[in-house]
Known about the structure:
By secondary structure, the protein is of the alpha/beta class. It has a domain at 33-106: Response regulator (Rossmann fold), CATH 3.40.50.2300. It contains 6 helices and 3 strands, in the order H-H-H-E-H-E-H-E-H. It has helices at residues 2-11, 22-26, 29-32, 48-56, 76-82, 94-105, and strands spanning 36-40, 65-70, 86-89. The two termini are 22 Å apart.
Amino acid sequence: MLTMLTIILRDKAYKVTxxxxxxxxxxxxxxxxxxxxxxxxxxxxxDGLDVCRAxxxxxxxxxxxxxxxxxxxxPAVACREAGATAFFEKPQGMQQFLASIEKxxx
Length: 106
């Protein structure tokens, strides 16, 4: 999914920095200052909501759009409480998923 989203978003002329874990990007968040962060809810050994909370705790990231996505239903209230801007369910189809993402990118 990470590779596919990276390719598709780059093909649409977005600048994409992809990482497989929060640890890989945590140290460079202030330098990157992304407009949007896409986070899978299930990151193997890390919960995407915990990553969202960590990003929100950084004062440089308070206005960053954070989109959580998952193949599993996640309560919207849990995403909001973690600081997410929105939640998307993965199986909705790639075109609809990208349309949802692009809504926040513009």
